[in-house]
Amino acid sequence: MITTCIVRLMLATLALGASASEASPDGLIGLHKTGTDEVRWLPGGSGKAELDGVTLSFETDTVASSVDTAPVNSVTLRWSVDKALTGYEVCVRYGADIGSGWRCTVYPFAGNASEVKIGRLMSVGVPAVLLFREDLSRAVLFGMDPAFDYLNPTTWTGATGFFFQDGITPPQYRLCGGGLQPGVQYTLPLQIFTSDAGNSVDAITQLVRAWIAQNQYKVEPMFVRTPDEALALYVNGRRGANSWHPGMGYQIQDLWAAVYLPVSAMSAWFEYLLYCETGEPLWRQRAFEATDFLLKAQNNDASSPLNGYMHTAYLLDKKEFNSDDRGSNPGYKVDMDFMIAHYMFKIWAKVKEHEKIDRKDWHDAAVRCADWAVAQQNSDGGFPQMLDYGTLAKSISVVSGRALSALPDIAVITGDDKYTRALDRLEQFLRTNVEGKFWFSGQHPDLYPGDFESDSVWNAVGYWLDKYCHTQDTECLKRAEADAYFAFLMLCPKQLSWIKNPTQTCHTEQMHFQQYSNYTYHNKKLACLYRLGQQPGNQLFGDLFNRAMQCGFWTQVTEGEFTGAQYERMSDPWKNVSKEFDSKGSRYMNELSLDANLQLLETGLAHAPRAAAAPKSE
Known about the structure:
Helices cover 32% and strands 22% of the residues. The chain contains 13 helices and 30 strands.
């Protein structure tokens, strides 16, 4: 059950210069001397303190309540100074001395971390951090009231950091960035939820449901166009797109001259589905050309340890295959090969069913690719994100979300139980090393394997929903919902005050490219939200689906060369990647937009448009 976090406000005075580890176990609010470990914890819940000739006045209000059977402590802190105070920041920490054996997750900065040092919080979703004991006996959601104008870079709240070191530095927010100004009434409303459920699935479900109930969270309605209109815009844009390269495939985006082969395999599947629905020969031709081109990317040297591997990119300017992934993370990518094999198997099976044509060369190439990928499984049951170019050394295991999606289908299509055995081991890795540690990583092939990200979470949701569909095992549905609740923490909960573009339900793509996006990336995010929303009592997920879908439509290009493509972002609230808060970034014709529109087509939420009939001659 969720228990109230007891926040003690009988604070003890400490001499300036005491380190955080020496602080009173009852300390809640203090002054941190920037650039040092020195903290002065202030006495009492309200009062005044003198420092360097400056008087700091402060007060604390605590309200314990229960919403939807979930107790919550709301703590509001207020402080002001009579003169400017430089070199210090206000420090507010969670509870008493929590001891050791804790981990912290702060998206997009750190997952399952024993130490967190964030000088400036930004790009978060729900403005809270997740704290949990390693044995999961206790979990805490420690955050700011979302109604507060948190982390606004145009006000003092933009200078908010978070620090934690297991057993040394208690989890704490640090505010004002080393400078307090007179005439400002500083206010920080906090909310603290705790769970002693004892496992990750129940804990995250309890915490997020309590947060939603406490804040009366609602999804703001949004409408841009219907799914049929959006799919028609995209499909008609693809017909004449300059990004199509005959005999090869689509250029992935306007800023990278490459055919990205895992996406190209998905694109071929999408266009063959268009052909099956419309009968338009163009889509069959392109699907076949793109799939044939994949064969050229494969290593067919039977004596090589890379036999069966397919490179991930074809560089249009250099006319060569490689797996450099924009030059930032070169190596042989395991999860990406699962994605290639997955869609090659799907199109092979569909063509055989629809046309009675057996493209054995596609099938055999997919088998070799899948077998190479399966052979890379690590001893812990997970798959490495990649193998080193030179040594072939395997990286740490990551979520391998594309493998989670691919292996069940590959096992059914081939009838080979080696894929099922590999999946069983991967599922155990997912349960223990990913969900059990609230640490999803490795989805972005151009980033290092341990990079904490949001997109693989939706692959896990999709995996559990598919397994629930086949087995009716309610544990699978519980896990799907729990992972979706964890992903919810990564979504912006409201319209940010200083942004004009829509922000609710946006998420930060990754730590190393902090923009606000609302796309689906190599996963079935939209389909997952839609399917969850069909479950009794899950209207929230249905509302999130509609909002996320319409946000995707909002980013669609409606005219010109890239008609139908999607912009990569909806805004840049902290100007991390651009010079404008409301910028949209580059345009993707064959990723992001492809992912979204494929889901509309596969779920039957939209139907493929037929080509306009040629005008009759007079």
